[in-house]
Specification:
This protein is α+β, with helices and mostly antiparallel strands. The strands form 3 sheets. Strands 1, 2, 3, 4 and 6 form a 5-stranded antiparallel sheet that branches. Helix 14 crosses helix 15. It is globular, with a radius of gyration of 32 Å.
Length: 543
């Protein structure tokens, strides 16, 4: 236990040193009680550099925060979205030990050769190219040695910090304890490469045979399961270059952008299972218009109800319909405390008004989506984390597509897809059975309606029908009426005490009652003074 405390204390000192080194100007303002308008977070790039220097766990924390546009402004989201650990690769001797422990068989029997120089290095693992004894080339993603102890130490400290931040107003609104728990579960899951392997297989299966794009043009690598373990991921080797850096002269960039849009729209709005981190480094160009989608470590999931609401919200945002946006926001994320629908609608109205004069081609959809989530947060509505992942995926996709073709417009690309989805929901995949089922429902309704109407009329005439009415947004009126009634009661009591004291004072010589009138005057004065102060503090007398 003492060793753990010592390690925790040493880590806290290390964190403080890093924060002071990178953010001294910010910390100086913070410690000197700067102006109220000063940011409560370090500048975006300062925060990014702090997280990089703190190591792989904090890099992953920053990557998680980059999926929460409902919590952070867009400049922070953009800075954290490109967050990668600035760590050199582990020497081959270290990862070879992990590889031998995981495979539990001589490497010479499994591989013809392994390239000891890594082709990519990240905060969790590094990748090596290897040739199997069968002659097949694979990519070996091998976890960094000793990472589990580092993760266990840092996640414990992050949970402690979250419990402290939870005492603040921001911490309560953002539910930072739940956010910390979500992060700790996510990074523990990311240490198990078999989960990423299952995600990769499932994503490839969903994208096969799509009616919206040629699935042969979008490649998801095959998993080599005999060599995949919790710390080693073996997958098909993909020969290609990062999409935005590759020579794409043999393909139409508009077709590539359209294919990616349709693939991700299907993942989000049809499958409910989507690649949540499609940044440029995870998209490789293979030639002839083919693109490979790599690194399925971060996967988002949407249940059918959320998919439906999200689809309608996208349509409302594109249509600049503030009223519908407000209604769908409350359906998507029911608030834990009363929220004024009218206030939320007014905020959306002010937000969307600045886009009224823009054409669809000039609309930056991801920016608008971020601002809608920020407006919801300002109204104390806690947006589900999976919607943040969705917003980040759409923003990354739109950014990549605009670099492929500058005149790319996301709303124009997804409108026909949304029409196809709504049409399928209306008539179903099999129109004739749906029509027959609807006709049967109408027949049952026509047979049951007279009986139901008879019961309703019978209850009304017999005075047994009860009506339950629920009126929203009356809590403020009720509270005001209660306060007014209380103050009126206090005023009556104070007046009664003053009158009683005056009567007793006038009759003092007859009843020989000494001091009672002075006591009543004193009590009336205290109550009256308290009533005046409470009225002044409430601001009701301000002009």
């Amino acid at each position: 236990m003492f060793a753990r405390l010592a390690q925790s204390g040493a880590r806290q000192a290390e964190i403080l040193e890093v924060v002071l080194r990178h953010g001294w100007d910010y910390m100086r303002r913070l410690l000197s009680f700067g102006k109220a308008g000063e940011p409560q977070l370090p500048p975006p790039m300062v925060l990014r550099n702090i997280l990089v220097d703190l190591g792989p766990v904090y890099v992953k924390l920053g990557q998680l925060l980059s999926t929460r546009p409902d919590l952070l402004p867009r400049d922070y989201i953009e800075a954290l979205s490109t967050l990668q650990a600035n760590v050199p690769p582990v020497p081959w001797s270290g990862v070879e030990m992990v590889l031998r422990q995981q495979l539990r068989q001589p490497l010479e029997q499994v591989f013809n050769s392994i390239e000891t120089e890594s082709v990519a290095a990240g905060s969790i693992a590094q990748t090596h190219r290897a040739c199997l004894s069968s002659g097949e080339w694979v990519a070996l993603k091998i976890q960094r040695p000793g990472l589990e102890a580092v993760v266990e130490r840092d996640t414990r400290l992050i949970r402690s910090i979250a419990e402290l931040v939870a005492q603040t107003e921001f911490g309560k609104l953002a539910d930072v304890v739940s956010l910390a728990d979500e992060f700790c579960r996510a990074i523990q899951a990311e240490l198990d490469f078999t989960q990423e392997a299952h995600h990769t297989d499932q994503l490839r299966q969903h994208l096969q045979g799509s009616r919206w794009f040629d699935s042969a043009q979008l490649v998801v690598p095959q998993i080599h399961w005999p060599l995949t373990t919790p710390k080693v991921l073996a997958m098909e080797w993909i020969d290609g270059q990062p999409l935005l850096e590759a020579d794409r002269s043999d393909a139409d960039p508009k077709k590539i952008a359209r294919m990616l849009t349709r693939a991700f729209f299907q993942q989000i709005c049809i499958d409910g299972y989507f690649h949540a981190d499609p940044h440029p480094g995870n998209l490789f160009y293979l030639g002839s218009g083919r693109v490979a989608l790599l690194d399925c470590g971060m996967i988002g999931r949407l249940d059918p109800r959320t998919q439906q609401i999200l689809l309608e919200m996208i349509l409302a945002i594109v249509s600049l319909d503030a009223q519908r946006c407000a209604e769908l926001t409350l359906d998507l994320a029911p608030p834990e405390q009363p929220v004024s629908l009218a206030q939320l609608q007014n905020d959306y109205e002010r937000l969307l008004r600045q886009y009224y004069t823009l054409s669809v081609s000039e609309l930056d959809f991801s920016q608008l989506f971020y601002e809608v989530l920020q407006a919801a947060r300002r109204n104390h509505i806690r947006i589900p984390g999976n919607l943040g992942l969705c917003a980040k995926a759409l923003a990354n996709l739109e950014g990549i597509a605009r670099q492929l073709t500058p005149d790319y417009n996301l709303p124009e690309q997804i409108r026909p897809l949304m029409a196809d989805v709504f049409r399928a929901q209306l008539v179903g995949e099999a129109p004739l059975p749906s029509l027959l089922r609807t006709a049967l429902d109408l027949k049952n309704l026509s047979l049951q309606s007279p009986r139901q109407l008879e019961l309703l009329l019978s209850r009304i005439t017999s005075e047994t029908q009860r009506w339950n009415l629920s009126l929203r947004e009356l809590e403020g009126i009720r509270s005001s009426l209660d306060n007014s009634a209380n103050r009126l009661s206090y005023s009556i009591v104070v007046g009664s005490l003053i009158i009683g004291a005056a009567i007793i004072s006038a009759q003092t010589q007859r009843f020989q009652v000494f001091g009672l009138s002075e006591l009543l005057f004193a009590v009336a004065s205290v109550l009256g003074l308290w009533l005046i102060i409470s009225i002044l503090r409430s601001g009701r007398l301000r002009g």
